[in-house]
Each structure stands twice: as structure tokens, then as C-alpha cells.
């Protein structure tokens, strides 16, 4: 019982360790998927801002080029203003006389040259500023009479910035479907998404005051997660338009990017499961083999006790002066000793045969033989035992081809093992049927040995040919044997290139079929 509990504890600890490893691996994969999803969202957010910025830049460049083409249609008007004032530097005894001249340059642009539907005009003002300063008095003037501070011309031509601002004003006068070409937009989206390592199907749309405009992809699923970015915002930061990107299969994209990692992880998990399963399988198998070996040792000890005790009694009797003076009684007890010795020798030889088979050291002495004759020889040995139990053996020799090259001794032993089991596992009077025949393909001589004994369930029939296995009967010793006969029989049949099978049902008996290839 303690040994059984130890095996259960070891298996339980192995299963807990396996579940722990698998759980950690699954958690790690889940964490990586979460990180990759967040990384995708960051890339998508950055990409959509880049897309809107590029759209705005391209529209600005386009409108500026259109302004440049209007130079023949506009002429500036000028207005100059002058301002004089005194400037001081706080905390220092310095003062300056400052004069500022401002030149105002006004452009009047006919909008019909930019927007065909507009007949009014747009005024753009540009300013040139000139500042001069002359020191009135300074702290350093007495020591350096030439000391003076003078700011030269400080002109700032802000025409380009003003034009960009006015270009935005003109853009707001244009419908969005004229400002954004879907093909151009698609090209920009493809390029920027690729630069951000996003290679996945997408849906796009431009919202006007929150409503979907005419500029959008053919597919548009409102249920998908959306990424937003303002488009064509004015100087006050207000944007009438908004670009929206949606991605139908984000999780598929994330998982697909992790396929090598997931395959490696799954392979590792399966490998670990396989190793643990194999370890548990061999542990259970080893436990069964150990249990069967213990049963075998117990059975062997039990089998040896009887002949040893008989030999001991016979030897003591031979030492008796009353018996050793009687030749007939001496011969009788000597015969008992010889018979019991032969019995122990047979038991030892069966164990050695299995050992030689396991090591592949068994050599077959093949000769051309009549298989029906070998079966009849085995039947002669078992017939007296069955008859003694008031049993019957029905013989039906239907095989026409019976010649094969086999090892006579081992083939007879196979028949004896099966016939002996049919007798031993029949609790009442044995009823055994033996039928020989040729298989339909003509390749094999076959024999069916059927009994009406205890029978076996399916799990027992799968184990019946294993070393040391014995069908449980409630008492280990009530049926003599070591659990080696059928294991030996199967190995010998397979060495001959044949087949051995069993069909059985509890309470209905068993049928063993042996097929030997013909010459």
C-alpha cells in the first residue's frame, strides 16, 4: 500500500509541475499578445497623425503653388507708418531714441482663379518693419565717447506664413471631396502604414462634424475600434474634419506576427507533455511489471515448495532402514524424487527460455513438419488430464495444407500452453474444441482452440501476452502457473512469422487462434 501511495504522490507532483509549466507558458504568450496589441495601437495612432499631417502639407503646397500662379492677376498697394518713442533698460542708467517704420503691403486675390464657384476676392496683407535706435545717454558713454548701441534693419517678411494661413481659409471654402482625392489618400495611408510596420486590411473615412462624408472606403464597420485624428484644423485649433481608420482583424494580425513564437511555445509545451506522459506511462508500466514479478516470485516459491517438500520426505524415507531394505519401495521413492526434480527443471527451463527470448538469443531448430501431427502430439499429452476431470476435447482437422518449416519442440510447447490454459481456466468439466483450417488467402495454417471457461474482459485480453501477467481469479495460487506461457508462445509464433490472437468474454470462455505460415 505504501508503494502504491508513493507512485500516486510522484505522479501527482509531476502533473502539478506540468500544469505549472503550461500555465506559465500560456501566461507568457498572453502577455506578449497584450504587449503586441498595445504596440499596434501606438503605431496606428502615430500613423494616422502622420497621414493627416501629410494631407495638410500637400494641400498647403498645392494652394501655395496656385497663389504663385496668380502673380499676373494681383498688384500690391502700400501704406507706410512711422512711430517714435523713448526706450529704457530697467535697472540700468541707459535710454534710447527709437524710430520704427512699418510698410504695409496689400494683395487682393480674385477667388474665382482658385475656386470656380466663388466670385469675390481675398485680401492678404504683408508687413515690412524697419527699426533704428540711437543712445541718448549710457553708463559707458563718459569713458568711451564713441560708445553707442545701434540696431540695424530688422525686416521680417512673413508673406509665406500669411499665405499658408489664407490657404487654410480658402480650403475651408472647398467641399471635402474636392480637397481629398480617395486614390491619393489610399496611397498615403498604404505608404505610412507600411512605414509603421502595419500590413493589414483597413477601412478609412473622413467625418464632417461627426458625420461620415463621401470620402470613405467601400467597407465601413462602425463596430470596429477606431483611430481618430483631426484634419485641416484652423488657427484656433478647431477642425471641422476628422480622419478615421478602422482595422477589421487586429488580433489576427497580432497573432500572425507571433506565429513562429507560438509554434515554438506550443511545440515546447507538447514536448513537455509528451515527456511527462511517457514518464508516467513507463512508471505505471514499471509498477505493473514489478507487481507481476512479485506475483511471479510468490508463485514460483509456491510451485517449488511442493516438489522440494516431496523430495525431502522421499529422501528421509530412503534413509529409513525399513525402506532402504525394500528394493521396490526404494525404487518408488527414487522415482518420486526424479519426477519432482524433472518438474522443477521444467519450471526453471521455462523462465530461462523467456530470458533468452528477451535477449534475442533463442535459436530455432527448423525442420519441415506436419502441423496437424504436432498438434495431435500435444493433444495426446493433455487428453489424459482433461479426461481425468471428466472433460471432452472435440477435434476438427479441416486444414488441407499442413506442411511448414518450424521448430517442432517450440510449436508443440505453444499448443500445450494454450491447451493447458483451456483446461486450468475451466472451473467445471472442460469442454475444449480444436479446429484446424487454411486461411482464405492460402498463406497460413491456422488452429482455433476454444474453451467454455472463465473468459476474460477486453483489458485482460490486451495484457494476456505480457511477461508474468496472469488473469486475476481472486486467489493467486488457486491456478498454478507463472504467467510466462502465453508470453513465450507469442514470441515463438512471431519468430516463425506467424500470428497469435485471442477472443474472449467473461463467463463465456476464450478462443485462441494461432496462424503459422506455410512453405
Automatic annotation (TrEMBL):
Keywords: Kinase, Membrane, Phosphoprotein, Transferase, Transmembrane, Transmembrane helix, Two-component regulatory system. The chain crosses the membrane at residues 7-28, 258-284. It is an enzyme of class 2 (transferase). CDD domains: HATPase (cd00075), HisKA (cd00082). Gene3D superfamilies: 1.10.287.130, Histidine kinase-like ATPase, C-terminal domain (3.30.565.10). Pfam families: HATPase_c, HisKA. This is histidine kinase. It comes from Candidatus Merdimorpha stercoravium. The lineage of its organism: Bacteria, Pseudomonadati, Bacteroidota, Flavobacteriia, Flavobacteriales.
